[in-house]
Design brief:
The chain is mostly helical and 301 residues long. The chain has one domain (3-300): Farnesyl Diphosphate Synthase (Orthogonal Bundle). It is 71% helix and 0% strand. The protein contains twelve helices and no strands. It has helices at 3-12, 14-33, 39-67, 95-119, 124-137, 151-172, 177-197, 202-207, 213-217, 219-239, 256-268, 273-300. Helix 10 (219-239) runs antiparallel to helix 11. The radius of gyration is 19 Å and the shape is globular. It starts with a helix and ends with a helix.
Length: 301
């Protein structure tokens, strides 16, 4: 594989893309439960969000490289789930190539969003503007959400209610309270995935003045907040039937065992990356199983 192909593959990062795919899956299941699923529009939705995600990764690489964050990650703190995509650090892509990929990704994503707005549902524009803004300004000035301790909230919002409700909106032409509520536990778990991914980057982020919430709290306290966040996700899931959601959403509790393992692992040793990596993997498993179980539960109800 050439350096350019390897760099693009890293920016596409299938592990991280599971977050957006999980949210779209949940939104599609909710839409399928309320009517016929239009596969063509769903495919466009998936492609558009994927393009924006690749663009976000590319533009973020440039910002984190320029700030020194990625360069400051020591070998013992590298993880398959954090530390950036390292396409610039390892010279897989030039800065110009990375910027070009970001521009093309944003352009394609925006073009697809406009096509959906014109051909299917104009209200998609509102969600699209919010999503693209969060993607770009997650790293970039002037907002730099991830540098100000706001990235965790942005990720929870976008990968939970925003993408899930947007997928539903394209299919059904409206957003319901139910689809927003059902996305809340997933948003919390994906925010928890970002949270645990910030532990290996703690020293590099602190050195580059990237004030993530894990940096602000310190790893010991942040590990306890992680447990609270994970617990809140599954408590919210348990309460959904009280707000009119079908009992089938409880199938999302399939994600509870790996989430519990992740919490115990992180609490036991939050300062050593080799011990944090299993917690990262189990958090990923947890949000995927949560989305899968909740979505299937909606279809079966």
């Amino acid at each position: 594989m050439s350096h350019i192909s390897a760099g693009i593959w890293r920016l596409a990062d299938p592990k991280i893309s599971l977050a957006s795919f999980s949210s779209m899956f949940l939104g599609a299941c909710a839409a399928a439960g309320d009517g016929h699923l239009m596969i063509g529009w769903l495919a466009l939705t998936v492609l558009g969000i994927f393009c924006i995600e690749v663009a976000k990764n590319a533009s973020g690489e440039v910002v984190d490289f320029d700030s020194g964050t990625d360069l400051a990650v020591e070998a013992e703190d590298r993880s398959p789930f954090s530390g950036g995509k390292r396409v610039l650090v390892e010279a897989l892509l030039t800065r110009r190539q990375t910027v070009d990929i970001a521009v093309v990704g944003y352009a394609l994503g925006i073009a697809i969003g406009l096509a959906i707005a014109v051909g299917r549902e104009a209200a998609v524009l509102v969600l699209g503007v919010v999503g693209v803004a969060c993607a770009y300004f997650y790293h970039a000035r002037p907002l730099r959400l991830s540098y100000r301790g706001l990235g965790e909230f942005a990720v929870g919002l976008c990968y939970g209610p925003l993408i899930c409700a947007g997928t539903y909106l394209v299919q059904r032409g409206r957003i319901t309270t139910a689809v927003v509520l059902v996305a809340l536990p997933l948003g919390m778990m994906i925010a928890a995935f970002l949270w645990v991914n910030e532990f290996p980057d703690y020293r590099a982020d602190r050195a580059a003045n990237k004030r993530t919430l894990v940096v602000q709290l310190g790893r010991q306290r942040a590990s306890r907040v992680f447990t609270i966040l994970v617990s809140a996700a599954f408590v919210t899931l348990a309460l959904l039937p009280l707000f009119g959601l079908p009992w089938g959403v409880w199938l999302g509790a399939l994600g509870l065992p790996p989430a519990s393992v992740a919490s115990r692992t992180l609490l036991a040793c939050p300062e050593t990356t080799a011990h944090v990596i299993p917690a990262q993997l189990n958090t990923l498993r947890a949000f995927v199983l949560l989305a899968l179980g909740t979505g299937v539960g909606l279809l079966l109800s």
